[in-house]
User: Fold this.
Amino acid sequence: MPPKSRSAAVTAGRSAWRIDDARDLYQLPAWSDGFFGINEAGHVCVTPLEDQGLAIDILHVVEEARRRGIALPLLIRFQDILRTRVRRLYRAFRNAIEESGYGNVYRGVYPVKVNQLEEVVAEVLEAGGEFGIGLESGSKAELIATLPYLRDDETLLICNGVKDHSMLRLILQAQRLGRNALPVIEKSSEFRQLLAVAAELDIEPRLGVRVRLATSGAGRWAESGGYRSKFGVSIPELLDIVDELEQRGQTDALQLLHFHLGSQIEDIQVLKQATKEVTQVYARLLQRGLGLRYLDVGGGLGVSYDAGGSPDSINYSLQEYADAVVYSVQDVCAAQAVPEPVLVSESGRAITAHHSVLVVEALGAYEREVLPPDFQPPAQAPPVVAGLVECRAELLAATAGELSLSDLAAICHDVEEARREANMLFGLGHLPLEELGLVDRLYWSCCDMLLAAFRRQDPDPQPKEMQALEESLVDRYLCNFSVFQSMLDHWAIEQRFPVMPLARLDEPPTRRAMIVDLTCDSDGKIHRYVSANPDTSYLALHPLRPAEPYYLGVFLMGAYQDIMGDAHNLFGRVPEVHVYASADETDNYWIETVLPGDSVEDILAEVQYFRQNLQRRMNEIVREKISAGMLRPTAGMEIVNDYVRCFGQTTYCQTD
Ligand SMILES: *Cc1c(COP(=O)(O)O)cnc(C)c1O
Assistant:
C-alpha cells in the first residue's frame, strides 16, 4: 500500500517533487510490465523490445501523428510489444517444460475475439510462427477470418462457440484440405450434427470437447466455468460421445479436451484444480483406448491493470501460470501412467493488453471560480455575504497549525450554512444574481483554504468535513474521446485502466481531476483511477496551460477495448498509428501504418444516413430560403459548403 506521506506530498504539491514520485503515484510498476517508464524529460516512454532498452518517447509519436494531420483521440499500437508478449509466454512454458522434464510440447492459440484486427492477428502469427502458434475462433465471422491465416497443416485452429451447419461443414472441409481445424463440441446436439455433416462429406471427423468441470473460477467471469456454466459438455454427455465414437471405431476422432475458467483468473489454485480435473478425464479416456492428443486449458491468464489488492490486479506471474499448468498435468499423467498431451492455452488478454495506448487531449478543465488573495470585499454586503467574507478572512489570517481540527470543522459548517442560506434567499427573490455569484466564489475560496489547512495537519482518521471537501473539490477535465467507444469495460464492468499524463511528470500534479468525455451521457466519465492516493475517485493532474496541449495516455487498451467499442452519440473508431522500434531511426521508432478513424460520413452510413440524401435535403432547404428572398445565393452556398465539409471530418472535436 502507498505510504500516507506520499499522497500528502502529491496533493500538497511540495516543491521536492521527483519523477519517481510520478511513477509511484500512477502505479507504473504495478501495470507497466516493464514496457512503460518516465524519461529524464518527464515524459512517458515505452521500451517495447524484448532484449534492448530502446526507448520511445510517446510524445514524439503523438507530435509526429499530429504533424501528419491525424486528429486526436489516437490509438498507438506498439507492435513490438505484441511480439515480446508472445515470446515471453512461450518462454515461460518452455522453462516449465524443461525444468519439469515434461514429455511433450506447448502450442499456444490466439483467441481472436480479444482483438480481431488484421494487423494484430498477423503480428501475433508472425511473432509466434517459429513456435507454431495457432488461432482460436468463437463465431462464424471469426472462423471465416482465421481459416486462411493458418500457416501450415500443423497449425491449430480451435473452433469454439456455438456452431451451425455451415460452420461445422466448413470446419470439416478445412480438415479435408489437410488443415488442423478442430471443432470444439459445446453441447451434445452439436456432436450429432457434426456426425451428420461428416456423413454428408463422407469423412471421419476430428474434434475436441469442452468439458464442464466441477471447478469454477472466481471473480467477474466465474460463470464461464463450473458445472452450472452455460458452456460445455457434462461428464455423462462426454461418455455418450465416447461410446458413440467407439461403436463407430473412430477412437482417434476425439483429439482435444478443453476447458475455460473465464478471463482474468484471480487465483492460481483454481487453475491448478481445474487442470488436474480435466487431466484426470484425459487420463481415463486414454486408458480406455482413445487417441487424445491435446489438452487445452483455455484463456484467463491475467494481467495487472492496478496495484495488488485491487480487483483489477493479479498476484501471479507468467511463469507461475505456466508452472501451474505444466506441473498439474504432469502430476496427474504420472499418477495415471499415461503419456503427456500437447499443452494448448488460449491466452488473449495476456498477449494483447499492453500493446496499445489511447492518447486523448484535455480540451478544458471545469475549475471552480475562486477569488484572488488580494480581493477586496464590498463595503456594503448583505449578511450572508459578510459571513463568508469573515470566514475567508479568518482562514487567510491563520498560518499552518493555528486552527485546530475542530476550528476548521466549525468554519466548514459556517461556510455550508452561508451557501445554503444564499441559495434560499435567491430562490425567494431577496438576493441579486451578482451577489449570488460572489457567494459562489467566496464559498469555493473558503473550501480550497479549508482543505489545504486540513491537509497540512494530515489527520488520521480524516474528519468527515475533510472527506466531504476532498470529494467536492475535484475539477472535471473534459477530454476528447468517448468512454463507450474506447474503454467500454470501464463503463460496463467498472474495470480500471491506468491513465496518466504523457508529459510534465517532473512537475507535481496539483489538481484533483475527474476525466469526462464528449458524450452527452452522465456515465461518460472515468470514475475510478489507478493511483496511489487512497481516494481513487480522482486523478492528480497538472493545471492546464493556455495554448499548450495536455495529453493523457490510457494504457493497456489492447485487449477487448479495441473491438467492443460502441458508437454512442456517433463517436466513431479512432485513428491508429502502428509503431515499430528501431535504433536506426531518429527518436528510435518509425510509423508503419496509419489507419484513419471513422469520418462523420462513415459513422452516419452505419445508421443509414447517406451523404447524398442528406446533402439533397440540405440543398432543398437552402434553395427554398433563397427563392423566398431570405438569403442571398452566395450565403446559401456557403451554408451548404460548411455542412458538406463536415462529412469528411473526425467525429471527435478537431483541436487544431
Ligand atoms: C474469451 C476466451 C478466451 C480468451 O480469454 P483471455 O482471458 O483473454 O485469455 C479464451 N478461450 C475462450 C473459450 C474464451 O471464451
